[in-house]
Amino acid sequence: MSRREELLDLAEGAKGFMPTNEGLALYEVALEYGRRVPGGTWLEVGAWCGKSALYLGNAAEATESVLYSLDHHHGSEENQAGWEHFDSTLVDPLDGRLNTLLSWQRTIASARLEETIVGLVGHSTVVARHFAQPLDVLFIDGGHARDVAWADYEAWSPKVIANGLLFIHDVFADPKDGGQAPYEIYRAALDSGRFIERGNEGSLRVLSCVA
Ligand code: SAH
Ligand code: MG
């Protein structure tokens, strides 16, 4: 089995919120970008247990890029007890809080991607304020509450370089299909004139920075 297939299999088997068709699209588009612009700096907001990191990390490894995978690792609102996406196996018995850090670390280690993927443990906007490196690829998949999604967009999207990529996950034009915050920031990115749409797969939108 090739390294590419090994990592795609591991990604498919990993715990998380990334349908296979969308993960494959993430991988393919990032790979195509990395081949044109190798050695880039990539970042994802919203790591959870490392599933999307394996799709992006597969492409990053092949193109000598580095992926920062950012999360405070205590889950979003929708991951807490009583909400739709709660997973009791991820609760830390010591403090009763959700904690995905160990699971994330095991996922990255099992894929032997520790020299390609760098974990950033912290609040998205705090990290962003101190993160000066321009981004070739940005994947926004953090909290979906309106203020959280907007804060991610405002903090991180200005760091994307010209011709760089912005992926946004969980974009649903129709409120019946899902929360509207990712859709709002996707619209804002297009309306800003800095990004144009390059493609989509399921709820994943692919934008390219034009300025
Ligand atoms: N990309 C993941 C899913 C991410 S779920 C996958 O492929 O499965 C969203 C994640 O965003 C959660 O793990 C949550 O802890 C994180 N998150 C939410 N708000 C955040 C914030 N303000 N700063 C850092 N991480 C945040
Ligand atoms: Mg998502």
* Ligands present: S-adenosyl-L-homocysteine, magnesium ion
Number of strands: 7
Q: Report helical residue fraction.
A: 25-40%
Task: State the strand order across the main sheet.
Answer: 3-2-1-4-5-7-6
For the record, the CATH architecture stands as: 3-Layer(aba) Sandwich
The total count of helices amounts to: 7
**Which structural class do you get from the secondary structure elements?**
alpha/beta
- The CATH topology name reads Rossmann fold
Mean pLDDT: 97
* Unreliable runs: none
What Rg do the Cα atoms give?
16 Å
- What's the SSE pattern? HHEHEHEHEHEHEE
Distance between the termini: 40 Å
| CATH homologous superfamily designation | Vaccinia Virus protein VP39
| CATH class annotation | Alpha Beta
Q: In one word, what is the shape?
A: globular
Q: Largest sheet at a glance?
A: 7 strands, mixed
Q: Can you tell me the number of structural domains?
A: 1
- Strand portion: 15-25%
Could you list some keywords that capture this structure?
binds S-adenosyl-L-homocysteine; 7 strands; Rossmann fold; 37% helix; 7 helices; binds magnesium ion; alpha/beta; 7-stranded mixed sheet; 211 residues
What would you note in describing this structure?
The chain has helices at 3-13, 20-36, 51-62, 101-110, 124-129, 146-156, 181-191; strands at residues 41-45, 66-71, 117-121, 135-140, 160-168, 195-201, 204-209. It is α/β, with parallel strands linked by helices and 211 residues long. The protein has one domain (3-209): 3-Layer(aba) Sandwich (Rossmann fold), CATH 3.40.50.150. Helix 2 runs parallel beside helix 3. The longest helix has 17 residues, at 20-36. The chain starts with a helix and ends with a strand. The relative contact order is 0.16. Bound molecules: S-adenosyl-L-homocysteine (SAH) and magnesium ion (MG). S-adenosyl-L-homocysteine (SAH) binds next to helix 3 and strand 2.
